Amino acid sequence: MSEDREQGSLDHKSDSRIYRYTQQREALLSSHAAWSDRAVRRKNRKPEDIRTPYSRDADRIIHTRAYSRYIDKTQVFYLVENDHITHRVIHVQLVSKIARTIGRCLRLNEDLIEAIALGHDIGHIPYGHFGESCLSDLCEKHGIGKFFHNVQSVRFLDRIEDQDLTMQVLDGILCHNGETDDVQISPEPCPDWDAFDSKVKANADGIRSGAPMTLEGCVVKFADTIAYIGRDLQDAQEVGLINTTNDIPAECKEVLGSDNRAIIDTLIHDLLDHSDADREGFISYSPEVEHALVTLRAFSRERIYNNPNLTAEREKIKTMYRILFLKYLEDADAERRDSKIFTEFAGSPWVSQDYLRSISPAGLVRDFIAGMTDRYFLKRFEECVLPRRVEGKFR
């Protein structure tokens, strides 16, 4: 008994030393950085430990079921058999690395940056952005509004798996997307959970409701583009869609460079040169670099994302989404407990009971499909449409 008390005292002293160290380290951050003592949780079910609140959030995200499914979600090149193209899990790691590099140089909170970056694409679904449009059409048709992957990321972490993450992390995840041609982004405060929930609802309605509430969230928003814009060119060359030496517009090559390494280097240095994290508190490109980036996005949209070689199978994918949605909606309405929507989703111990009590059948189907990997989606489709073979005799 005395040994337990003594060990507890030692642990407490150790925690105190680590807490003081964290305070000293964060005292060196920019005045616009998100300090750990300002982190806000919705429920506060457990006290913080030797980790900062944002570091704990990063760990919680990594341990979710949704995070583990990054491994088989494609980034851009779905239906392409090539081990060297980017999958969602690689993209997320790249965003984290790039954003932390920027945050370190601007003296921002790297723990918060990492948590936002790791969770920002959890809501992405099978077959990339095209899959998102397919699911969105079905959701609207069945009366549950549009589908947006940023809102779905928050839904997975805050409601379905109920991780009790800080508002700062959830807000950064919510606000990471929605590319615009803005040269400069400044944080917009989010005073409380009611305001945050209203922000989520606005995004679910298709209304982009402002910038992230922290400068760290703004950095991740920029890093998301930096991570994919050159990497998509590299992947497109890998699969033979473009030749980066000859095809990239001359003005883009002149300003940004012609390969992924040069583009990342240019964008990071330009961002560091034109951002102000100490006085005004904003993240910004130069107008010249932003113009070149807009031009490069347009090139990628035409030559890569809408390339006929990638879009040829879209009608089949749309049909697959419709068949699976209707099949699982029928199962959910009829409460067929042997259906995969119950045995592998709604009946799982990691799914929040509060979520299950409040979700509609169509919402349940949306969330089940949204969590699927490309391979799992295809397997469930084959299960729905292909006749089951019987070996030997019926049992």
Describe this structure in words.
The chain starts with a helix and ends in a 10-residue tail after the last helix. The radius of gyration is 23 Å and the shape is globular. The chain has helices at about 1-25, 55-60, 65-70, 90-105, 110-120, 130-140, 150-160, 165-175, 195-205, 215-240, 250-255, 260-275, 285-305, 310, 315-335, 340-345, 355-360, 360-370, 375-385, and strands spanning about 185, 285. A two-stranded antiparallel sheet has the order 1-2. The chain is about 60% helix and about 0% strand. It has 3 domains: about 1-30; about 35-310, Hypothetical protein af1432; about 315-385, no CATH class. It has 19 helices and 2 strands.
Question: Gist?
Answer:
This protein is mostly helical and 395 residues long. It contains 19 helices and two strands. Helix 4 packs antiparallel against helix 5 and helix 10 runs antiparallel to helix 12.
